[in-house]
Design brief:
By secondary structure, the chain is an alpha+beta fold. The protein has helices at about 5-15, 40-55, 65-75, 75-80, 85-90; strands at about 20-25, 30-35. A hairpin with a 2-residue loop joins β1 (about 20-25) and β2 (about 30-35). The relative contact order is 0.11.
């Protein structure tokens, strides 16, 4: 087991990560750690911060849904949203 695998194993066994899905897989001689998170959860954000703080990585990738991606690339998108339409859309999915 490499040092990175040991560190990831220690993190995955810590109390902070026991409620979040955490998995390390190997692909083409690279270790990839996947951490499942909730979009609006402070606990999830804290877990991401803790994992990144270990420094045991060469790169960090973030998966975003299309609406969150649009907000990042178009900062004015939130200001241009019709809040009533957003609420109406959410209610229709209940």
């Amino acid at each position: 087991m490499t040092q990175q695998e040991k560190n990831t194993h220690e993190i995955s066994n810590s109390k902070a990560f026991q409620s979040e899905p955490l998995k390390t897989v190997s692909f083409n001689h690279c270790n990839i750690t996947l951490l499942g998170t909730a979009h609006v959860s402070k606990a999830s954000a804290d877990k991401v911060q803790e994992l990144i703080a270990t420094g045991n990585y060469d790169a960090v990738a973030v998966e975003l849904c299309s609406s969150r991606y649009k907000v990042i690339i178009t900062p004015d998108a939130i200001a241009q949203m019709d809040l009533f339409q957003v609420i109406k859309k959410v209610k229709s999915t209940w």
